[in-house]
Amino acid sequence: MASTPKKGAKKSKAQPRRAVAKKSQPKQAQTVQSLRRELAVALEQQAATSEILVVIASSPTDVQPVLDTVAENAARVCGASDSLIYRIDEDVLRLAAHFGPLAWMNESMPCNRGSVTGRAIVDRQTIHIHDLGAEPDTEFPVGKVLQQRFGQRTVLATPLLREGIPIGAIAIRRMEVRPFSDKQISLLKTFADQAVIAIENVRLFQELTQKSAELETSSSELRETLEQQTATSEILGVIASSPTDIQPVLDTIAASAARICGADDA
């Protein structure tokens, strides 16, 4: 009779342990799923960065393929409806690349604080508007007109800065009110830096090519000048050595003229 309660007591101690184990299993599963999602996002970000770097390396003279790739990856990795890259052309912004199914204009925009993208450039900092539709018309006069025309709600824009000087901006949009996360904001800044690197690489390559061409032209002109001086000196030497006979002088002049002018004879 006394042993029965002891067995029951053992069972009562074991049951809570099993209950705790069962409760912890869903939490562990959630943790594993969360880690897997984070890993997948990190791998996607690395793949996007690698893809852009490959395009930069393979396109030293043409920035357009790089900007197209940056726009595509920015929209995809940041979970945006689309992505736009603008470059400054005097006092206006011109669309340099666009990725996504959303309609957008090809005409230029004024480079001022009247739009989200323009403000990011003027202020030289990232601008994140959670709901452009809820902003007063006076806050973003240009942006509000575009919002009513195309319907975008959440907008994130960051400037393209070269040594602190803005040369353009990249913006991503969502058609619904859904603010971007801190990680997505940081990612967009990374994409902006890569776009600047590509633009700067092409600019430097073009400058180097131009300077090389100018140097080649200068070298060619210098060679021609030296050759002309040599020919003149040679003729003067023949004149000095042949004061009574003009024929050697004429022969030397003819030979020098043909050589310097690239003629078959003279």
Secondary structure topology:
Elements: H1 3-58, H2 64-77, E1 82-89, E2 92-99, E3 109-110, H3 116-123, E4 127-129, H4 141-150, E5 154-162, E6 165-174, H5 182-241, H6 247-261
Antiparallel strand pairs: 1-2, 1-6, 2-3, 4-5, 5-6
Helix pairs in contact: 1-2, 1-5, 2-5, 5-6
Q: What does it look like?
A:
- Helix 1 (3-58) packs antiparallel against helix 2, helix 2 (64-77) packs antiparallel against helix 5 and helix 5 (182-241) runs antiparallel to helix 6.
- Strand 5 (154-162) and strand 6 form a beta hairpin.
- The chain has 6 helices and 6 strands.
- A 6-stranded antiparallel sheet has the order 3-2-1-6-5-4, with helices on both faces.
- It folds into 2 domains: 47-202, GAF domain (Beta-Lactamase, 2-Layer Sandwich), CATH 3.30.450; 210-261.
- The protein is elongated and about 125 Å long.
- It has helices spanning 3-58, 64-77, 116-123, 141-150, 182-241, 247-261, and strands at residues 82-89, 92-99, 109-110, 127-129, 154-162, 165-174.
- With 266 residues, it is an alpha+beta fold.
Sum up the structure in keywords.
Beta-Lactamase; 266 residues; alpha+beta; single chain
**What's the architecture of the largest domain in CATH terms?**
2-Layer Sandwich
Strand order of the largest sheet: 3-2-1-6-5-4
Reading off the top of the CATH hierarchy, the class of the largest domain is best stated as: Alpha Beta
Task: Give helix and strand order, one letter per element, not per position.
Answer: HHEEEHEHEEHH
Number of helical runs? 6
Q: What is the third-level CATH name, the topology of the largest domain?
A: Beta-Lactamase
DSSP E strands, number: 6
The N- and C-terminal alpha carbons lie at a distance of 138 Å
Largest sheet: 6 strands, antiparallel
